[in-house]
Fold these 2 entries.
Entry 1:
Amino acid sequence: MTVTRFAPSPNGPLHLGHAFSAIRAHDLAREAGGRFLLRIEDIDGTRSRPELADAFRRDLKWLGLEWDEVPAQSTRLDSYREAANDLLRRGYLYPCTCTRAEIEALEPRLGSQGMVYPGTCKGQALDPAKPAALRLDIDRAMADTGPLEWHDVLAGVQAGDPREAGDVVIVRKDEPASYHLAATLDDAADGVTLVTRGRDLFAATHIHRVLQALLDLPVPRWYHHPVLLDAEGRKLAKRRGSPSLADRREGGEDGRLLAAQLRLHRFPDGIALENA
Ligand code: GLU
């Protein structure tokens, strides 16, 4: 059975790009007679605003979508800790005490996930007295997993190699997981078979594929859809003046009509699909 999901983070209101993504995931499930899941990704303690999750539900309903909701990430912290401890014990993670400023000072190259960590702390042992993030030793991981592949429905088979992103953070200093670990574990726990999300997260999938191999998780397929861009060619964002779905809903706009337009790739003025 096809199981897709929409997994928003409640750190800002949803906008048209989210609507487009949720509708795509919803329709892919429905066309296949499958299930569409909503998962609230609320482990970013400092930026998460719990009241937004309710607004998200109202937005999706207003668009005419129906879903099954799976537990929010904040209720699953134990499963993240368990997986991280397993990876640590097996030598795939190492503690990193570097601050952002310290890493910046080394002028690292930029990769798909931001600054590529130069490996300063590699080999360091865990000191429980010192708060540390845990990074994936990607060379070690890839040496053990061997070549990996993953399948994107739109882009075809990909050779899974996240080395360009370097030793990414798997457990943050202040949270028991990073996005990469939490989303990968949850997609497996939720039985997601088709991970549907924007193409802006394409490169992250290489990392998720390695984590699946290391943690012996089922491997879904992916559907990375093109994302909506504003008139300057940038991803939509509330801070750049893109009206939120809540603004539109509260302004009396017809959500089902909006959803129908998005399905036809008819977008408001100044908004376009990337590479369209
Ligand atoms: N929570 C992520 C976001 O809001 C989406 C993660 C995903 O779809 O894998 O950007």
Entry 2:
Amino acid sequence: MFSSLQGRSAIVTGGSKGLGRGIAEVFAAAGINVLITGRTQTDIDATIAELGDRPGRVSGLAADVANPNDCQRVVAAAVERHGGVDIVCANAGVFPQCRLEDLTPEDIEHVLSVNFKGTVFMVQASLAALAASGHGRVIITSSITGPITGYPGWSHYGASKAAQLGFLRTAAMELARKKITMNAVLPGNIMTEGLIDMGQEYMDGMAATIPSGRLGTVADIGNAALFFATDEAAFITGQTLVVDGGQVLPESAAAIADL
Ligand code: NAP
């Protein structure tokens, strides 16, 4: 049994949709007060309305993680509303597909700005508040794509997700003496609006390659993030947790066909 996280304060970037909303839902159910962000106010409002009836309070703020000033505003709002920041989930991300031959400098800059720099800016903005909490937690949403696997059209995206882990390993060391842990969840294919936009054919094809035989749910990711947030995970830092139903395990298509 894990210690209660009731009353802790969390920021979930990209909490207005998809995986972030799933993390926010699991956290609020555990009694954690959650500040969700995203750039689109209407999505934030819809998620707050949906997650309103939980033990933890859910509120929101429109902010762009690629803008360091916005990250500072998010932290200030969490401190004001919830008395501090104990947990930061650097989850906001974009995953446009573009083949290498068509990639422009702007495409690369966009993906790195949100996924990599946005992670760094959000963590930097939270440092003082996380240190003050005495049990700070940073949980990064990376991906299997980049650190472990590849997929056509996602060379820049994969690089941004691997970059988050390069950042993680040194930053986790720098923050350890401040009792801040920093870990990453590496989701496989999870059912979100973003993934649904890829089309039914993509989703069916993906499910067929996963030993568990299904795509993940946002709660699968929320529960993994919740574990890293617990007091019992205090001695785990700089680590990654793949949450993918075994997707990265098969050596070949034949291995799946033999199941
Ligand atoms: P999603 O459904 O498209 O949600 C993305 C969230 O990020 C939204 O709340 C979005 O809100 C926000 N966001 C995007 N750009 C932002 C910015 N510049 N500033 C602030 N917020 C921003 O995507 P998702 O599938 O949940 O993905 C979330 C994370 O999980 C990403 O880091 C992604 O790489 C990772 N991931 C997802 C999967 C999967 O299967 N879905 C697998 C592996 C990893 P606005 O658009 O309103 O800003």
